[in-house]
Amino acid sequence: MIQFQYVKPSKQKAAIDTVAKDETAMFIAGGTNLVDLMKRGIVNPEKLVDINKLPLRKIEKEDGHVRIGALALNGAVAEDKLILEKHPLLSQALNAGASAQLRNMATVGGNIMQRTRCNYFYDTAMPCNKREPGSGCGALEGYNRMHAIFGHSDKCIAVNPSDMNVALIALDAVVLVSGPKGDRKIPFAEFHRLPGDTPQIHTNLQKGELITSVDVPEHPYTKHVNYLKVRDRTSYAFALVSVAAALDMDGSNIKSARLAMGGVAHKPWRLNEAEQFLAGKPANEATFRQAAEIAMRGAKAFEHNKFKLKLGPNTIVQALKNAAGAV
Amino acid sequence: MDRVDGRLKVTGAAKYSAEYELPNMAHAVLVGSTIAKGSIKSIDTKRAENAPGVLAVLHYQNSPKVPGYAQEAHPTEPKPAGKPLQVFIDNQIHFNDQPIAVVVADTLERAMYAAKLVKAQYNVDKHATDFNQNVPKAVLPTAAKRNPKHGLADYVRGKEDAYKNEPLKIESEYVIPTEFHNPMELQSIIAHWEADNRLTVYDKTQAVIGTQNAFAKDWGIPVENVKVIATFVGGAFGNGLHTWPHETAAIIAAKKVNRPVKLMLTREQMFTMVGYRPHAWQKVGMSATKDGKITAITHEAIGQTSSYEEFTESTLQQTRMMYTSPNVTTRYRILPLDVSTPIWMRGPGEATGAFALESALDEMAYVLGIDPLEFRLINHTDKDPEKNLPWSTKYLKEAMQMGAERIGWSKRQLKPGQVKNGEWLVGYGMGVGTFGANRGRAKVKGTLHKDGTLVMQSATTDIGPGTGTAMVQIAAQNLGLPPEKIVFELGSSLYPPSPSQGGSATVATVGSAVHAVCQALKQRLTSMVAGNADTSFKGATVENLTFKDGYVSLTASPSARLSFTDILKQQNLPELEVSEESSPDNSLRQKYSMYSYSVHFAEVQVHPLTGQARVTNMVSCADAGTIINAKTAGNQMIGGAVGGIGMALTEGGVIDHRFGRYVTKDFAEYHVPVHADAPNISSLFVNKPDLINNPNGTKGIGEIAIIGVAPAIANAIFNATGKRIRELPITPDKLI
């Protein structure tokens, strides 16, 4: 680990100014990802700006949405009464992530910013365009069991590892950021990027911009929801495939649906066409299977992740079944 | 009885090797190679040397020489052909992440940072790390080439490959990936040269005396000048049975900087520098009669080893002795690859072999339409068909019956896919395990103090099974002293010699010496009271005395009694010290075949759409002789079952063969099972003594706790789904 400076400002503006002005500075909150990356020499900030003194921890109901502070802990959000009542899908997704110890350290803002777990990104002796642009993608012709089947490029096939992000994209969340040029709102679907030719650029956040909160708008998906994560071990493992499914039901018919996948793309993967297909259909396995087929259109797998072409739709079907059956 | 050191462990008061703080201690970090084969062209250490706090950067060009490196292999090692890796002797690279330099600095963080600044250039040679592509290069181990009667040599009982011509047969191939021990405690050492020729190490090891001998030989100093401390060991599962390059690197560093040096491997380095269970391919052919009698088994295995050292294990032993088959053929080969050398991992060899054998048994039972438990009972043998000897003891049938009742085997349907719990398919499976009931030679010193306490010492270790607790209980029972008055000290080379803690042999080995110490103490106390003025004890012998609660009494008239304390006081003795060595009776070992046995029953549920498999109930039963401590023995069985769940469902190392480098090397990517993967696990013991093996009647537990678990789970998955998965681990992608 390189020697670094550490500051802990109590004013948001000071924190933002410090990072905006210093090329080598980074924000740190829970540190559950960043410290690992620093220990392995993957990112090497020379200054850490600890934002834990900033008043960004609250979860509050506001007009038309619930506002979750960027520093709210994953564990606290998952157990929060308001979240359980209004956004149970988010709670399920959070509880599917990491371990209890990590959820009690990790923040919502940090979870959004979490880097990929691609094996090649994590090993500085291996090629990785995301870590070292131009060095090549190690996974493309390497061990790519955990990798993307949607939206990848020949420069990068890594996936976004977050569970929370999958629920947030399904729920049309909005990320509030504050930066040297002022505040702005970024729809969740536009926050993360596809790798294209610049996989080293992880999100659309600009230098010095700080996530201050996430707004989750009101929606009717409070009952028939399911976050289903299929993984290699029952806890503390990243998703092979995960699905966030939310249904608004009218008897046994679907009024509207929200559907997103994790573990399949460089960003949380919203399944808009499948959602549109589900609206107005009867909630049965045949419908779910058709929606899953629509969802999988355009998927392209690699040597070790071909199973995702089958596990993906199966998991969609099962998540929809679970959501429809949930009371 | 609770663990004697339980409180120390749960409160954090137990001190592990890396937790010692010595004055002026420096910290060392290893730099690993980034190629799998070739040589170092140049090594740039300038930036590292100039980094703050750095005391030395050592590599093959400037490392102090290890005098003993010119000589033969270490005595603790598995007598391999070839030579164990010698650190910093030349520029040759034999595997990816081989230690090429050690950076020593005043703090750990500074050493870590500087280690990243060391840059090597290589001449790269073409490496071979892909097992499947190199199978034709598999060879007979050297020991078997030299001696056709060797346990690793090809074995034929009856007719060779007799299954091939039989009508009712199976033939299947099985694969296990490389698995890693990954104990919680990282491998670590503090090396301290107290004088030029006097070395003290606080070392994570299973072998105190073995390590002492190895370092004495390395450095050409008297054995008694090397002190090895391993009071607590935070799990090891076999990877502390070897002395490894990182240990020597720390000792070299300490020599160079003339300060105590602490070196702790990183979790990533635990995957490349301290051994592993080798990747193995196996093939089993089996035939049987319609009514279920096995007529022939052929079992072949190829295990991975390194290019510089032959690692072998007894993968095929269970096949030769477990079932009554007139025709048995086994063939074992090893495949040298450009990887680091494997080392014994819990249930070494047998756990690998049992996965194939016990899966094949299940496959054969399905061909015959016979219940797999019934099939095993039909082929049960009451003598060792390999050695043609009676068993010392064998209560496997009793264990099977206990386990079958507890799991509810009768609920099982022979036809797969019949039982459901909601959407989940339910299945039951079983697997049998065995391991030699080993016993070695150990010495224990016992000192009975006049305050009535007994302190025993021996240079064994406790890697978690509760050795000290078991020894205290053995002494309490044999000497008639309350356990709270007994202390057993271990983990120091200053104590009388004991072998390494491995091969499930510690209780049989050290426990026998504790037994001998107690007998000797009783004899001495008896002579004292018999020669005493108190006439009631006159002429007493050990046989007509009772030793209980710290008192000696006449069995015939218990009211006449003397406390141990009073006996010593009468003799004017501050203490009574005895040292006893105990060895197995080799003549008995030639008359009897000695094994521990286990049988594991698993209930699993598999989701047909998502392929998730979960073990929902597990019953592990053992015939392990007398159970000294039900809690610690139960702990071992549960730990083994969890390890077996990992082997069956989650664990496997993956190499990117383009680089010959592991891509799974931390706890996020290498999936050791977590609590959520472990169901309620019942452990049951037959608990009948094996007095032929040793005077306490014990047989080992550590290995049989895992041997047979993985096939029990794989068989249960077949019973649930009709899918026979022959390559571990059984991850969801294999079940959709």
What's this entry about, in short?
Chain A: Keywords: FAD, Flavoprotein. The complex is a heterodimer of chains A (327) and B (736). Chain A is an alpha+beta fold and 327 residues long.
Which terms would index this structure?
heterodimer, A: 327 residues, alpha+beta, Uridine Diphospho-n-acetylenolpyruvylglucosamine Reductase, domain 2, Enolase-like, domain 1, five-stranded antiparallel beta sheet, four-stranded antiparallel beta sheet, 13 helices, 12 strands, 30% helix, B: 736 residues, Aldehyde Oxidoreductase, domain 4, seven-stranded mixed beta sheet, five-stranded mixed beta sheet, 17 helices, globular
User: What's the arrangement of strands in the largest beta sheet of chain B?
Assistant: 3-5-1-12-9-10-11
Report on the biggest sheet of chain B. Answer: 7 strands, mixed
How large, in whole angstroms, is the Cα Rg of chain B? 27 Å
How large is the share of residues in beta strands of chain B? 25-35%
CATH 4th-level superfamily of the domain at 224-325 in chain A: CO dehydrogenase flavoprotein, C-terminal domain
The CATH architecture of the domain at 371-437 and 586-736 in chain B would be 2-Layer Sandwich
CATH class of the domain at 224-325 in chain A: Alpha Beta
CATH class of the domain at 371-437 and 586-736 in chain B: Alpha Beta
Give the largest chain-chain interface (CB within 8 Å).
A-B, 37 and 37 residues
For the biggest sheet of chain A, the summary is: 5 strands, antiparallel
How many DSSP-defined strands of chain A?
Answer: 12
Q: Helix coverage percent of residues of chain A?
A: 25-40%
Count the beta strands of chain B.
31
Task: Give a description of the structure.
Chain A: InterPro entries: CO_DH_flav_C, CO_DH_flav_C_dom_sf, Diverse_Substr_Oxidored, FAD-bd_PCMH, FAD-bd_PCMH-like_sf, FAD-bd_PCMH_sub1, FAD-bd_PCMH_sub2, Mopterin_DH_FAD-bd. Chain A: Residues 1-221 form the FAD-binding PCMH-type domain. Chain A: Pfam families: CO_deh_flav_C, FAD_binding_5. The complex is a heterodimer of chains A (327) and B (736). Among the domains of chain A are: 5-52, Uridine Diphospho-n-acetylenolpyruvylglucosamine Reductase, domain 2, CATH 3.30.43; 224-325, CO dehydrogenase flavoprotein, C-terminal domain (Enolase-like, domain 1, 2-Layer Sandwich), CATH 3.30.390.50. In chain A, 54% of the residues are buried. Chain A is built from 13 helices and twelve strands. With 327 residues, chain A is an alpha+beta fold. Chain A is globular, with a radius of gyration of 19 Å. In chain A, a hairpin with a 2-residue loop joins strand 4 and strand 5. The longest helix of chain A is centred in the C-terminal third of the chain and has 18 residues, at 308-325. Chain A has helices at 12-21, 34-39, 74-79, 81-86, 88-96, 100-103, 108-113, 119-122, 164-170, 188-191, 272-278, 285-295, 308-325, and strands at 5-7, 25-28, 47-50, 59-62, 65-69, 174-179, 182-187, 210-217, 224-231, 239-250, 253-262, 269-270. By secondary structure, chain B is an alpha+beta fold. The longest helix of chain B is centred in the last third of the chain and has 25 residues, at 506-530. Classes of the chains: A alpha+beta (327), B alpha+beta (736). The interface between A and B is large, with 37 and 37 residues.
